[in-house]
Amino acid sequence: xxxxxxxGETLExxxxxxxxxxxxxxxxxxxxxxxPDADQIIQFxxxxxxxxxxxxxxxxxxxxxxxxxxxxxxxxKKLLQEGAFSYADLEEDFKRSELEQIAAxxxxxxxxxxxxxxxxxVDLFARIERISxxxxxxxxxxxxxxxxDVVTLFNAEAQLRHIPKKIVLAMGPWGVPTRILYRRTGSFxxxxxxxxxxxxxxxxxxxxxxxxxxxxxxxxxDTKIYGIIGNPVLHSASPRIHNPAYRTLGLNAVYVPxxxxxxxxxxxxxxxxxxxxxxxxxxxxxxxxxxxxRITREVKxxxxxxxxxxERDTWKGINTDYYGFLRPIFDxxxxxxxxxxxxxGAGGAxxxxxxxxxxxxxxxxxLNRTVEKAQQLxxxxxxxxxxxxxxxxxxxxxxxVQTTNVGMEPDTDADPLPAYQFRGQEIxxxxxxxxxxxxxxxxxxxxxxxIVTGKQMLFSQGILQFETFTGLSYPFSEAAAVF
Length: 483
Ligand code: NAP
Description:
- By secondary structure, the chain is α/β, with parallel strands linked by helices.
- The chain has 3 domains: 2-221, TIM Barrel; 239-322 and 460-482, 3-Layer(aba) Sandwich (Rossmann fold), CATH 3.40.50.10860; 324-458, NAD(P)-binding Rossmann-like Domain (Rossmann fold, 3-Layer(aba) Sandwich), CATH 3.40.50.
- Helices cover 36% and strands 20% of the residues.
- The chain has helices at residues 11-20, 38-48, 69-81, 97-106, 124-133, 147-159, 176-180, 207-213, 238-248, 263-273, 297-302, 320-326, 330-334, 348-358, 371-381, 439-446, 454-470, 477-482, and strands at 2-6, 25-29, 52-55, 87-91, 109-115, 137-143, 167-171, 190-193, 224-230, 253-259, 275-280, 294-295, 307-311, 314-318, 340-344, 363-367, 384-386, 399-402, 427-430, 450-452.
- The protein has an 8-stranded parallel beta sheet with strand order 7-6-5-4-3-2-1-8. Strands 10-9-11-13-14-12 form a 6-stranded mixed beta sheet, sandwiched between helices. The chain has a 6-stranded parallel beta sheet with strand order 17-16-15-18-19-20, with helices on both faces.
- α3 (69-81) packs parallel to α4, α6 runs parallel beside α10 and α12 (320-326) crosses α17.
- The longest helix is centred in the last third of the chain and has 17 residues, at 454-470.
- It is elongated.
- The two termini are 30 Å apart.
- It binds NADP nicotinamide-adenine-dinucleotide phosphate (NAP).
- NADP nicotinamide-adenine-dinucleotide phosphate binds at residues 282, 321, 324, 345-350, 368-370, 373, 403-406, 408, 416, 431-433, 454, 457-458, 461.
């Protein structure tokens, strides 16, 4: 079940949130209400006509309740007595036999929760066991500090299988996969916040993102899991390329962002979750190489891999940046309309671009702020090189490929080649995709140049990843919806 946590400051606000997000179950965070009135809360809960979890979270557990435990107990007692809730969330160290008795008499199930805002406690599983032995539903909301902690949480499914009703989730950016793949931790529900509402806990995702993008409620033991690894990774647009296409094609598959600090541990997680394939972004494009059983020629040439797929009993690495880069200019290369290119930058993206151009018989000049790096790439690829201020001194290019970070947030007014005069005949290929228009694009457009955008490349490489993962053609009806 996907539970929507109601985080409004008033019950009226919560009613609007619930109407906009019709969930199967709601959690009412009474600690966030500005004026918590027991009678009004009871009336609200009855009107909701859905299972409701009553929560009044203390400040030390990440909530907003500041008064004494005694006052809180009498507030909760009033609310429980009327039997308007299906569940009551009470903390592990907040034992009140009176409340437990009222809950038992009214048929209210107790969710016995514990929170760790700093780490995953070493006795995580033992505490869950102890709570379950009391006949209560254990809820562990702990803080993952790396991918190793995420592995621990997913182990809960196998190790605590005998406890069918439990909630085990990790807060913070590392914990996001445990929220989306909650059934793979053995949890019976997961939580989400309403769009634009205050987030109930670190790492809470938007309700529509959980429901419509990740379809978290449909994930089961047959679901094929794909994803993206990086650090950071939550900003990635890739889930919006892959997930809607699975839905359109009726595939039981999900594509999840995994923040990863240790590639080796992620490969262990990939084995245990049965992950079928994943995209790789900064800083892991080189780090994955030692774990691959097979690589393509491009991965070998470029020395980096952005796509890993489980194929014929091994992990195979490919580089869809290479092909994604080529796709928008492929016809121009094939028909010899691009013979000479200027590549600005000498980082990872530039390597893919230069190799792709050189493998298609295009001569290349690499210009970079750090000239030694331009020289290194040029020597490996049989290109020429120079510094950024030499753009006007090279042979007139048919194509300029902009691969530096100049023009990206927060540097959106900057232009990597301010002195270069566009002739209007060259194609400008800007790899930056956010923002969509950079100062150099504006200048080139004014001069009459054809523009290829970073978004076109991003989408092209995403489509190739989709096809590599699933063996199916990308449903192009999705393209418009994604971008
Ligand atoms: P990278 O390996 O870190 O390389 C960054 C490059 O930018 C280096 O050549 C660096 O020069 C240069 N640079 C950075 N700051 C600069 C500055 N202030 N002035 C001049 N040059 C500067 O990064 P990357 O992986 O190649 O990515 C580069 C860009 O390509 C990013 O915007 C990324 O989002 C984009 N990209 C887009 C796609 C797509 O699908 N559209 C795919 C991959 C990458 P130095 O060597 O002197 O440091």
